[in-house]
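Lecture notes, unit on protein representations.

Consider one protein chain, 321 amino acids long.
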Amino acid sequence: MKKCLAVVAIVAAAISAAAMGQPYPSKPIRMVVPYPPGGGTDLLARSIAPRLSEKEGQSVAVDNRSGANGMIGGEIVSKSPADGYTLLLATSAEVALNAAVYEKMPYNPERDFAPVMLLANSPLVLAVHPALPAKNVREFIALAKKRPGEITYGSGGAGGPHHIAGEWMKLLAKIDIIHVPYRGGGPLIVDLMGGHLHTSIIALPVVAPYVKAGKVRALAVTSAKRSAALPDVPTLDESGLRGLDVSQWWGLLGPAGLPREIVTKLNADLGEIVKLPATRARMAELGMEPVGSSPAQLGELIHADITKYRKVVKEANIRID
């Protein structure tokens, strides 16, 4: 009996050692999306996942874990084993903006994640209802100064990138416009087209089709350079409102302590995926511009954005109830 137990123990130890020595990945990978199905982040994940699956030789499953401005999904990944089998398709919101807005978070965006790659970015758009008598940013600012406290602007939610951009614009332009938060871009664009809102700061993928159809007017994009999706729309810098740069971005993160060899492999494979014509075409459909980066570059971006947004939140006295 003792001999049998000893043999079983030896076999079990050998199997365990073999499993530990298996090359990555040796089982399915979970890609956590911290937002509901159907949004831009989810659609990007479902475009990337099957191509990453082909590269890795294992299935890559998209797992939607929404709530708390993306922090539920972020917490899941931050507390997962650092073995490369649970990854986060992160956005600037739950990583950088939340760190600037909330005093307490269930994770530290710089300490609790291992950056892998910046995949894509996209500007926001300052858009107005066509009936508003402002054809450009200068006319909009002049109108807002003539009508303080009367003009409304919608955002996709308090504390999100649209809200931060709107309050930053108010600070720089010295105007008084009223923030109206919505639960996402869908209901916001409906009210903007219906004339229930004067203006909005809204994600480019949401608003671009309606700009092209003439149902809303785009005054500017909030990025440092023009967007290929709306090439005729100037930046805020070009429009005389200098210094405001709020872009949404999407990047892949793992839990802190992710082994360097896994980070390197994922980065190399994603780099090839981002260069594929099919990937780039899909990103263009979603209003995103493909990037690709080193892990260090994504880490630097996270740090820079947290620093930038903390300063804006303090100066604009932005409060989230």
